[in-house]
Model the fold of this input.
Amino acid sequence: MLKIAEKDTPYIHLSDTECNFEIKGNSYSVLIDDIYNKVAQWIEDNFPDIDCEINWKFHFEMISSASLKGIIKVIETLDNFFNQGKNIKITWITEGNDTDIIEIGEDISELTSVPFDFVQRY
Done:
């Protein structure tokens, strides 16, 4: 299990035993590369042994440009496992009609084979 929750980093909860994979909140830390590198490494280390259906949830309120690079790295790592036959989908959640976050998700979805679901919460 990997859990990270700091002031300027998103809440990250990754649990292979609960089959729960979620990153949510604000993503703008100066050290955000380290955070997303840990997430990508966790995926590499744990996904070979995961047998459940993987629904990876991203739910951002704010994303910095530096964070975007890390998010793409995580999704590329997920894409590698998807292309190896893992059952993975991504749920991109936004609050209301946050067009900036929606567009970021739409742009990222075009870079991967992993299916995306877009959910707007009001």
Residues 94 and 120 are 5 Å apart (CA to CA).
